[in-house]
Amino acid sequence: MNQPDPVQESIAIPMADPDQLQALPGSFPPAAPPEPAETRFVKKMLFGPQGLRVGWSVLLFLIMAFLVMGVLGLSTMLVMKFVLHIKTGQFSALTASLQEGIQFVGLLTAAAISALIERRRILDYNLSGPSRVRHFITGFVLGFGMLSLLVGVLYQGHWLQFGAVSLTGAAILQFGLLWGFAFLLTGLCEEGMVRCYMLFTLTRGVNYWWALGTVSFFCLTSFLLHGNGAGGVYLMAALGVVPCLLLELRKAPSAGFWEAAWLTSTFFGWMHTTNKGETWIGIFSAAAIGFVFCVSVYLTRSAWWAIGFHAAWDWAQTYFYGTADSGLQPKGHFLTTNPIGNVLWSGGTDGPEGSILILPTVLLTLLLLVVFYRRRKIDTATPQITGETSLLS
């Protein structure tokens, strides 16, 4: 019978439990199993070095904004129609204020959630540049001045005539303030969506081919849905094809900003194709002034000049002069004006924005903007362009 060797028995090493080995100093944890290829693909599509990719960020932002706007808008319309018995189909200071207030709440909600996801402040979306109050006032003054210049030229050319003053006494101040509040919200909403969140976000991730594909989508939907003034969308899209391609080929540091400007300006015109009475000139002028607003962000490093200009232009057009605004005829305006003569020059139902004279007006605005801010030697560095190099890659 074999007896156990006492020497071997004394040096035998007991086997440790695998769970205990993980806790031993100097030991290594077991390697994690590799992720399935499908999981890696989904993560790569959704996330980049800076978190959620910009294409999905913009899409999520728009879905949240329009969802909140839709719910609040429907609820408000039902209350106004069946509880307060207020007509909702007319373009008045009250309905405009309510509509813009709803859009502002939706926009602010989407911006707050997006900022939380992206770990930013809301002001980071092109709202935190220097001299914000001065830029806002400068934009407001120029916005009123340029619309007044356009109205004056139309009057001198006999394409617009003045009627009687519509308001008297305290009503002038009352409606002036109410329309002013409504159009301040308009400036905050439309600029907040396009020149703040979208321009800022797309700048850090868009490239030429994704911009081209997106503006092509706008053109295609305008054609298929027979959007009002769709020709203006086609023209704005076409104007950016070659300049943005050259910037992309040269690998210019600012290429992302100008590609985002092209995309958002075309989008801004495309947004207005649902307005009744729009013409191709009106749609193109909306897209063109959107590009001017992008230039103002580039020069002033914030969207406050654009917000001021936008609010003053709409206020002067709708309340002060009483002209049609994007095909909408206002109620409760100060002066009364009517287009006369050839629609190409007068703008017809589209108002001054539908006149061919809007094009040199926008061009003059761009020239004054560039000359004024270049002369003041403002630092024209573009918003920070780092990280991702395309919408989904």
Counting helices, strands and paired strands, the structural category is mainly alpha
Strand count, sense and barrel status of the largest sheet are: 2 strands, antiparallel
Rounded to an integer in angstroms, the radius of gyration calculated over CA atoms is 28 Å
Q: Which percent range describes the beta-strand content?
A: under 5%
SSE order, one letter for each helix or strand: HHHEEHEHHEHHHHHHHEEHH
Count of β-strands: 6
Overall average pLDDT: 85
Lay out the secondary structure.
Layout: H1 6-11, H2 18-23, H3 37-46, E1 47-48, E2 51-52, H4 54-82, E3 91-92, H5 93-118, H6 132-156, E4 160-162, H7 170-203, H8 208-224, H9 230-239, H10 241-250, H11 255-271, H12 280-300, H13 304-320, E5 330-331, E6 337-339, H14 343-346, H15 358-375
Parallel strand pairs: 3-5
Antiparallel strand pairs: 1-2, 4-6
Helix pairs in contact: 4-5, 4-7, 5-7, 6-13, 7-11, 7-13, 8-9, 8-11, 9-11, 9-12, 11-12, 12-15
Q: What brief labels describe this structure?
A:
64% helix; 15 helices; mainly alpha; single chain; 393 residues; two-stranded antiparallel sheet; two-stranded parallel ribbon; globular
Description:
The protein has 393 residues and is mostly helical. It has a domain at 129-375. Helix content is 64%, strand content 4%. It contains 15 helices and 6 strands. The chain has helices at residues 6-11, 18-23, 37-46, 54-82, 93-118, 132-156, 170-203, 208-224, 230-239, 241-250, 255-271, 280-300, 304-320, 343-346, 358-375, and strands at 47-48, 51-52, 91-92, 160-162, 330-331, 337-339. Strands 1-2 form a two-stranded antiparallel sheet. A two-stranded parallel sheet has the order 3-5. A hairpin with a 2-residue loop joins strand 1 (47-48) and strand 2. Helix 8 (208-224) packs parallel to helix 11. The radius of gyration is 28 Å and the shape is globular.
